[in-house]
Every structure is written in C-alpha cells, then in structure tokens.
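Fold this complex.
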Amino acid sequence: MSTSLIGRPLPHESARLHVSGKAHYVDDLPQAAGTLHAAPGLSTIARGRIRSIDLSAVRAYPGVRAVLTAADIPGDNNCGPILHDDPILADGEIRFHGQPLFVVAAETRDIARQAARLAKIDYDAEPPILDMDAAIPAESWVLPPFSMQRGAVDAAFADAPHRLSGSAVLGGQEHFYLEGQISYAQPGDDGTLHVLCSTQHPTEMQQMVAHCLGWRAHRVSVECRRMGGAFGGKESQSAQWACLAALLAVNTGKPVKLRLDRDDDMVATGKRHPYRYQWESAFDDSGRLLGLKLEFAADCGHSADLSGPVNDRTICHIDNAYYLDAVALKSLRCKTNRVSNTAFRGFGGPQGMFVIENVLDDIARHLGRDPLAIRRVNFYDVEPGARSLTPYGTTIEDNVAPALVAELERDCAYTARRAAIAKFNAGSPVLKRGIALTPVKFGISFNATHYNQAGALVHVYTDGSVLVSHGGTEMGQGLYTKVRQIVAHEFGLPFADVRLSSTDTRRVANTSATAASSGTDLNGKAAQAACTNIKARLAAFVVELTNGAVHAADVQFVDGRVRAGSAFDEAFADLVMRAYRARIQLWDAGFYKTPKIHFDPVTKLGRPFFYFAYGAACSEVAIDTLTGESRVLRVDILHDAGRSINPALDIGQIEGGFVQGMGWLTSEELWWRPDGKLMSHAPSTYKIPTASDLPDIFNVRLYDNANVEDSIHRSKAVGEPPFMLALSVYQALRDAVAAALPAGQPLQLDAPATPEAILRAISGGCS
Amino acid sequence: MSERPIQFYFRGAIHAIQGAAPTRTVLQYLREDLCQTGTKEGCAEGDCGACTVVIGELVGETGAEELRLRAVNACIQFLPALDGKALFTVEDLAAGEQLHPVQQALVDRHGSQCGFCTPGFAMSLFALYENQDHCPERDEIDHTLSGNLCRCTGYRPIVDAARDAYALPRRQLDRLPVIAALKTLADLPPLDYLGDGRQSHSPRTLAELAELRERLPNARLVAGGTDVGLWVTKQGRDLGELILTGAVAELKRIQIGPGRLEIGAGATLTDAFAALTAFEPQWAELARRFASTPVKNAGTLGGNVANGSPIGDSMPALIALGARIVLQRGAATREMALEDFYLDYQKTALAPGEFVRALVLDAPAAGLQRHFRSYKVAKRLDQDISAVACGLAVHVDDEGCIRRARLAFGGMAATPKRAAGAEAALLGRPWDAAAVRRAMDALGSDFAPFTDVRASSAYRLSVAANLLQRFWLETSGAADAPVRLAALTPIAPEDKA
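Structure:
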C-alpha cells in the first residue's frame, strides 16, 4: 500500500505561515544595520525632453544620502529584457507620464519620498501619442507589424454564403499583486551584491543588475523565497527596481531597500496590453467559418518589453479551440507614450481568444442561432484529421474540447436554462439575463523554445531529510508545494521530510522565468531528475549491500523505507547514513528540457507547445438596463488539469484565475487623463473583484484527463488557462445586452463591460 | 489635559509610545518600530485591507462597560487614535502552535495562495467571529470582507473558511484582562501628545473640544482619519497641529426620540448607519455599500458630511430626507439645512473655530405618504466611489398628488446638490409615468456633470435620469417584473418566469 503524495489535496506549504503573519516577504525580513530606503522621482508629462533638472533641494533634505540620475549609472541604462530600449532612469527623453527620472536613498522611506517631491524639473513638452488611434496612422511601432496567411483567404471570402465585419475594443489590466514591487540590495565583501527581490525571474534580475553596474554575473546574486502575488507583473518589470536598489547600494556602500508606493507602482509599471480589433468573417449556413481576416493592434506602451512574445502568443491563440481554414492575420505592435505593457497571466492569449469568441458570437446572432452551436461546428477535429492544423502549423493531437464542452453543457443544464432565460427576458423590461458557455484551449510552453529548460538541486542529508532548490519562484500558485510532493514521492518520504529552500541564483543558475504556466512542468521534472540520480546511486548501493541478491530496478522507495522484494528493507534515513559512510554522493542536480517543441520566431510557425490545456465555463449574468450594472449569478466550470498533482491547488488556480479574468472583463478599467496621466492608480479608483462579486453558485470541477504527453506525473499546467474561462462572463453579458436590443441590431460591447459600457451598448452606441 | 505618552493595550500589557510623530500610522509603527511584520501594507490608503487590525474599545455605561472589537485599516490610523484602546494584530490570534479557528479554517479551505492579503482577512474574520456567536449569512460575510482584497483565490475558499470557523471548537478572547486594562487607561487624563515636534490633542468632552477648536482654529480636526490619513500617506502633507475627536464620547451619541433622530458627528459610520436604517429601512442598501466595513468602523458620519466631497455617499440621502446639520462654536450652536452647508467645491459654511456637532433627521410629516430611496451606481458593488449617488424623496397627499420633492445627487456637481428643476417638474402632479418623464428631462438642465475616472458626463446624466425612473417603478407599483439586480437568483431550468 503506497502512500503517494501525488494527487493529494495538501494545503499550500506556507499556509500556516500565511494565516499567522509569519511568512516573510522581502519587506518583512530583518533589516541589516544602516539600511537606506529608496524612492523614485517620476515625470509629470507624457512626452518631451528634460530641459533642466534641479535636484539640489532633494539632496539638501535632511536624511537624504544619495540621489542618482541616468548619468550616475556606470553600466547599461537599460531594463528592457529583449530589446535595449527601456531606460532605468530617463536619459533626457520623457516617454510616459510617471517615468522614473531619478532615485533617492535616505535614512527612512518617508524621508526618501518627501525629498523626491522637491525636485524642480523643466520640460520641453511634446504632443504625446496616447493611444492606438493615434499610433496606427503615425506608424508608431515598438516592433514592426507582422502578417501571416494560411489558405486561400480571398477565394474563401468570394465563395462564402455569408460575410460579416466587426470590431472590438479591449482594455488593459493592472496586475494588482497585493505585495508591490520591492528589492533589497545588500553589498557583500569583495565587490559582490546580493539582491532580495520579489521577482518571477531571478536570473534576469541578476543579469540586469550586473549590466547596469557594468559587472559580470558572478558578482550579483538574486534571491526570492516568495512573492505576494505577481501574475506576470514581476517577470520583466521587477528589473527597474532591482537595478535602482543595486545602483544605490553600490553608490552608498549600504544596504538599500526600494519598496514602491502603491500609486507609484500602478503608474510606473506595465500592465496587460489593451487591444483593438477589426475583422471580416466568411461562413456557411451552419455558422462554420470559411475565412477570417483579422487585424489586431496592441498598445505596447513606450518600449518593447515582452510585447513581441505577447503578440506572438496572441497569434497562437486567435484560434482558441476552433479550426480556422483560411485565415489572414495582421498584428500591429503600437508604440505609445504610456507605461510599457508587459506579461500578465495568459500573456496575449486572452486577447487572442477574446476576439475569436466575438467573431463566432456575431455569426450566431446573425444566423439567429445559439452561440454554443456555432462554437461546436467550428471545433478542431478530435482525432487528427482535415481540421487539425493551427494557423501556426501545429497539428492538434490532444483535443478534448468537444467532449469536455458536452459534459459541462449537460451538467449545467445549459439548454434548459437558456430557454428559461429567454422566457424570463420576454417578461422583464428592466433586467435582462444572459448565458454563455465558452471553451478554452491554451498552449503550454514558452513560445521561445530556449526558455523551456529548468534546473534543480536536491540535497539528501545524512539524517534522511531533504532540501530542494530549483529555478522556479513561488508567487502563491503552489509551485513549492507541488515540488515538495514530487520529491517526497520520489523518495517515498512524508511531506515533512522534504523542504524547499528559497530560489537563489547561487544555487541554481540560468533559470527561466516562472511564467507561461510552466513552473511545475519544468521544475518538477528537473527536481525529479535530480532525485532519480540520487536514487540510482542508492539502488546500486543496495545491490552492493545484498551482494547482488537484488536488482537495482527492484529497489523501491516507499513509506520512508527502501525495499527490494523480501531481500532488503531498511529505513531511508538509515540507508542514507550508511551510504554517506560508504562515500556515496547524496546530492545531485537535475535538468529538464521540454521535448518535441520548436518555433520559428520569424515565420511564427512550428510546434511551440508541448501540449494544450483545456477547459470550459458556463456563466449566467444579469444586467440592469437602467444603469448598466451587472451581476454574475452562476458559474459552472470544468477544467482539464491533466492528472492533477494537487487538486486543491489546481482548483484554487481555476477559481482565482476565473475571478481575475472576470475583473478584467467587467470592473477593472484603466483610465488616463487627456495629458496621459493614469488616474486609476490606486485601489480606490481601480476596482478588482471583491468577495461580493463571487457568483451565488460557483461549481468548479476537474476534468480527469491524463496528459497524452510525458509531463510530470501526466499533469497539466494550470496557472494561466483558467483565466480565459472568464470570457464566458463577457459573452454572457453580450447575450444579456442582445436581449435588451431590438432584434437584428448589431451588438457592440466594449470590454471591460463596466456599467457605462453596458449602458452604451444597450443604447446602440460604441466607443 | 496633560502631556503624556500614547497608551494602549497590546500583547497583554499596557504599551506606551513616545517620540513618534502624531501622524505616524499604526501600520508604520507596527512594522518599522516594533518589527511586527505580520500586518502588511498593500496600498496605504485603506482600500485593500492587507493592514487590517482589530481595535478594542470600552462601550456602554460606567460600571457595565463592554469590550467592542472592530476591524480597521492600520495604514491610515494615526497613533494617537490608539490611546485608551486595545490593539490586536494577526500575531495575537494563535495560541502558541494552536491556530485560531479562523486561521485553521483558512488553512483547511486553501484560503491563502500568495498569503500577502491573508493576515488582513484573518483579522476581519476574527472580528466577525468575536462579534457573532453563530455563522452569519453569505451577505454578512461578504460585508465583513468588503474591505479586503485578494487577487489570488477568487474568494470562494475564504468565504467558505468564514463559515467553517464556526464548525470548529469555539474559542473566544478572554475579555476580562482587556477590560480591566482599558478601565485603567480610562482613568488617565485626556491625551495631549507631543511627538517629533508635532502636537496633537485628544479631548474627552464636548466642552474641551469646543474650547480647543476656538483656541486653535487652524488646527486640523481629525475624526476617523479615513480621508485625512491619505493626505499624509499619499500626499506627504504636513497637517500641523491636530485635534482628534475620537475620544469625545458626547460627540458619538445617537439619540432616537419620537419622530426624531440625532446622530453625533463623531458616531462611526457603522453606528450611524445602524441608527439610520432603524429610523428609515431604505437606508439599508447604502449602509451595506458605503465604503467597506473597516472604513465604516473608523470613519464618522460627521466626517463624511464635513469633508464636503462631491462624491460623499451619505449626503444625497440625508438631504433628500431633509437632514439638518448642527454646528457648534464655543458653547453656541446653530442649525441649518444640510444642503445649505455646501457652498462650493470642498467649501462649507463652517466658520473658523466651529465644528460639526450633529445631524438631525425628523420623521415624515403627517398626512403625506413619503416615498424614499437611496441609490448608488459604481463599477463595483463593494467599496467603490460612486459615479452617481442619489437620495430621492417624494411626498404624496391623499389625492396622489406630489406635495414635496427632494431629489439630491452626488457625483453630478461640485457639491452634493438638489435637482431643483426636476423637483419643480414633479410638484403638484400625480406620481405617474408622465411626471417622472418630465423630471427626467429636467435633470439635463439641473446638472452639467464632469467626466473622470469613474464615469463620463453623459453616463452620469443618463443614469441620474434612469434612477428617477427606477425610483418611480419601485415606489409606484408600476413595475410588474423585478427592477433590482439584488433581487435575482440564478435561474432554474423549470422557471416559469
């Protein structure tokens, strides 16, 4: 009887620490004596040049110890992760309202913030490009436009029985991680620097810090034990603050902590990209797409940051679960005088899936059909066949969308409820209900093939306890818990016998960002590989101890013991001690690289994804046609996490991702003043969901579906895919708006569907 | 009054603070001075709840004092506000290794992911648990959590944990030592505090307050601090000398007489809304949606009114009900209609040396039937600043004719303001569809609202008009289908709706 930890709904490994306030985040760590605190000074115009900058009052403020500008950066003044186009401090040119111009270190954080307010800056202001409407005609791009075509698009349109055109507007999203950006840089001896940083990407932080200092990488180390949320916002965008803290620490020789104020964080760090779309669709009487021409534009902000890969992932998710036979895509990567937009859960995927769901919904309304029926006729084939090739050249081999959707449709009584809603709406002039069931198919792996690698370091100590390090970071998703389960399972040990150390570039080098939902897939496999190496040595030792009476292959690690049939049975800790005395290596590194994947970044063709994660959600909403207010009444979700390693954590990702996606599409609105200043820069003005927004009925189930690929324990990644289940909320809102519109009137609902957007849609207007 | 340290009950003993500036926040003090880092800073403006702590205070008549525990935002509470109170933080919940039931339930239900918001949730749930013997309904749980943001979980496991905590063996705070300590603190003289070169005064009686206010007309009056706190944490403003009203018991008094309600300006929003809802049940929805539970526990009705913000949510409803404001200077008081208190954007009728003493409401006049509603429209149900808020009241005589109309709006002008044209359009007419249409049309000339982060001018105008429509539908019996989202439940397939 095995007591495997795989598949067990264990609590988050830090749960007891979380609830008792004992979990340490960077700002909670004991401070080294002499620690200084930093605050940035931000620009107050969106575009122009600095004519003069007078920081004398800042420097003179009592308690200020250092004030740095771009001129004080010894190395690269850049925190752009791919292109070198993103200054750490403005180099004379102002690119957005809220851009860091200088940074102050002082004896307290209050002093630093007060002093930063005293700068006198004279600008030569220039007219900013503040949105895509201005950027597109000006051909203002961070990266050149990209077009791709598959199939005979013009012919498909010429022959099609039906054609429609449409457009849509989709807003961005603030990450609103509860713990803001923070870095704490501590100078060591011999010209080294250790940076405690809330980041998803310690290695990149190490590189950026080294570059800005003009140092080689081995002088800088970066460590992260846990983050108070990240969601993509601490992938590339933790670099600016790590670099500033590092520059100040090296400049002053003191430990320097930079913790952004919430408002500065929201103004000065990037968000999910806003998009806008224009399309033409061609389809037959059944609603099956015959052709699609789609142009989409992303507001990338002032620099490229991760916008290239974000837009590439959009290209790879325009299809969602649907076969697009003849398709022409054009991707515009707009450069605007706004903060540089970045990674955010889904990484461009949500923006791709958003538009195809609108395309299909429009077709359904045009044909007078149930949108779910239109979705169904457009699904990829289940078995690889004529309708299995994605626009980017991958054949879909693991399609469970049709079966999963059918199961959810039945379980949530979709058809009967749809009929009941139609009846309700007929008798309800003020309130209208809507319902929608939408699928999710999300590709797992980084598009950039080389990121799909991971390392781990496993130490077995002589008392049989185990310490694991790996390159992944813990942001609440439960990565550390799952890796603990995986390692404990490998050695057959109780959960408590395995601990995780912080993630530290000194223990595991050249790590990839914990992103793309890949944390467990990559680091779990790497940790498992390290265990396999150690177990092989122990098994060989058992063979030696039994004088060859057992085969290495028969040695089992279960229940805290090492066994081989009836010939050998010893407590793990005892065997480990004996192995140590026999001079057997009890620690090892593990490495993993995802097989089968390849992607050409120029043509955007290949097999970027190892596999796909699937899911579906059915949402029921109601709107108030007098005010545009809405409520989500009921949600049913069926989601494919493969063979779940920890169902409790996976359900947590699904529910949390869904609600975050719901916020993106409903209440979370970014709003800029005409001069380019972000006015939704605090939780008072930017509204993420609260407990009251939780639907009355919220049924969430896992769809048991062992991964067809050899992923870690046949599980599937679950960090991002559920986010897009929330598209069902937006589609249900469209359904409710349609019920309030005269029959046949085109439907234009901007996202986020705030009360104002819904009221505008009901009155037939658009933005 | 005498100069002495700030003293409060903390971790089982009386704790004293000297030297810290009076505008130093409780959160800064906990984290930076005491290195008690369980309480987190998420926003420093009272909107995310990561800093939630619980304040204990003696209430009730002398000799029969009870300990009242309420959650507040430590990030915008100034240190002198702790004087004479008890402070509980997340570190106080567990007994050694034994987690508190709310903590254990959060663990068991997987209620934390990144864990950063979790201490705040634990404290809000702790306050609920201490104040309610039995598990409340979902809406009360939601209301308890209205000031706590979580970005990871989607809230379901936290709401479930709130319920599950009640299924675990009950454990309550031993209140006696706390009460004993607070009684000792009550015997101290009123607090006159000097810290970091800054002076604050915490009078205990109305007379002391009036004397101080007259003597120091330029001192900053601070009630709950839920707005003033941000002037410090966000704008770095120097507030100068402070007068804190929180220790003035007379200012918190709520008097319910026959046909009359008087709410002391220092009554917390929580207490004030309870009284208002008892007086007129139609306050319930605004009471629920106004700010968040921790903000309502700290903020005062007088502060909301005196602040004079064009988007203060209490004023439209108060104006619609004909509330009067009582102002005091020295021993003299004067009273005026609340709408007359507002002169211009953030300008009120308060004279130097004067303060808001109370708000007074009268029961509806006999012989007329009063219809009253208060509506709030915002992007989010909980803790959001209104795009439009309104208090709408019409008084109808036996003939069905409108004799009085008070339609007051927030978010539509530089001050909370009555819609004179729309009111005139109703007077003397039956409460019918034609009258409401006239009033809706008239609103367009009553207001020229602004466009900002919360809503556009056009939206505000259409919604204001549509709220009149809703008001009519709800109060005239004209609606034969539900008109409020809150009334809906998920549809059942067999619904014959």
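Chain B has a mean pLDDT of 96.
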